Structure of Protease:
Amino acid sequence: MAQQSPALQYSLSIDSVSQHLFAVNVSIPAHNEQQLTVSLPTWIPGSYMVRDFSRNMVNFSAKDKTGAPIKVTLLDKQQWQLDTQGQAVEIHYQVYAFDLSVRSAYINDEYAFCNGTSVFVSVSGFESLPCEVFIDVPADRHGWQIKTTLPHVADNQFSSQDYAELIDHPIFMGVCTSADFDVDGVTFTLMFSGKTQYDMPRLCSDLEKVCAHHLNLFGKPYPVKHYLFMTLIADQGYGGLEHRSSTALLFPRFELPLQGEPDELNDSYVNFISLCSHELFHTWHVKRIKPDVMVKPDLSQETYTDQLWIYEGFTSFYDDVTLARVGVIPPERYFKIVAQNLTRLYRNAGRFKQSIAESSFYAWNKFYKQDAGSVNNIVSYYNKGGIVALGLDLLLRQRSGNTCNLDDLMRLLWAEFGDESGTPADVIDRLCRENLKVDVSDYLASVVYGTEDVNLTTLLESIGVSHSLQAPLSLQDKGGESLPSGKVAPRFDFGAVSKDLDTGLLIQSVQEGSAAAQAGLQIDDKLIAADGYVVNTKLLQRMLSVERSGTMLLTVIRDGRIMELAMPLVAAPPQSCVLQITDNNKAATWLGC
């Protein structure tokens, strides 16, 4: 077994900005083994897909303390065996970094970013050793800063207790804009890559409310003293990934408020605050409270659990409801968001073929590998999981005589499993029954382990909100809004998601059972005409609003062939959800505002 006193030393630098190359050196102290195995993870916790990070490694080599080369044997795609003979060893390799996402590593002329899973190898038998990390900022990159929540030692030196902690703190070095704010002794840093002119006071003010909500929900002692919202700004892109005391975010450059702009509550702004809310919530609910199999996951292969609906689903409920609770958005805006989530679910035929427990288990090869047919074959444990959480909160209130709710359940989870001991599959059923004295087994059986819809109509009535369904207001309707007076909605069903081309429409997905499906319209078809007229989205919508009968003749190009399809003119189904507040006092009481 490896000695447990010296530390592993890692150094991270940039070999080439233009070629997007990190350079990594790893110093392994003398030990008792004749051979050592080093490896790079194949997936990153929080993102359940095999990504084979080792494919980006090049020029791997090892030498002893005299500089003599050590034999390296490749065991598989991500493991290397070193003939060390017990000697101290230094490993060197490069990592190609040009994945602009929150999951891997990226270098451009403005900044460099990486997750530890993409750049730092583990040493078998040494995983529990402390690690020292040296981050070298290129001398020719003026104004570059280091941002990470790795414990700071001095200057460019950082540390971690072990390998698991090492890979749970993303690293940023580059030009950035940041601001700090304090909430009950916890320092939060909001950081954006590049030179930005965002309205930082507004952003920090709203985030401060969200942070206070999450801290108050779970209570003291808080799991962090400092938290970093590390935001990568790009022309396009969206995403977030949780870490133990930070989150890596990706957001479009010009979809955030600039200095001097009016305080408009547009969708982009709400989405960003909600994204921050979501990832911060994971500090408790994923990074500490976690499925039993994720306590010490095997990062060399898939780790399966059917509990992701608890973690991503519940978090998807809290990310938005928090914004309403703290006044970032009004109640009406919150229920519109919920209605849009329900609309997306109601248009998903896959919800009748797969439960959210199954969706959790198959995340590796289904949810994380979606294609245009996924809407008809799988269900999202984020989307339906959030609706299940909403229903569970209302059900707990109803069956307990309003003496408990989902907040109480979250605090129970934190009290019992916040020590990272891991939750069993039946944790929600057990805690509700034994601690809250409410039996929800029938609910879980039908909507979590079965494929039934959550029956929200009566539950929502209890908090002064009505639930109704209507035909889509347009071909791009997302739900949540009633038909304005004087407006005409499409009379007939289409049932395909499309985007405008220079001429016609590109079909991106076709809803099972829809008029488009009955006509035989397929993914990647180019719909160029309807009834002999060249169409775009606006014109097709108008043509589907005209009272008539029979069929509509669609002219499409499929794989270089021109063909005509007869689409039946059938009534547009009521799949768009609208939630309206009928009792302001009840709704406000439920939201706590």
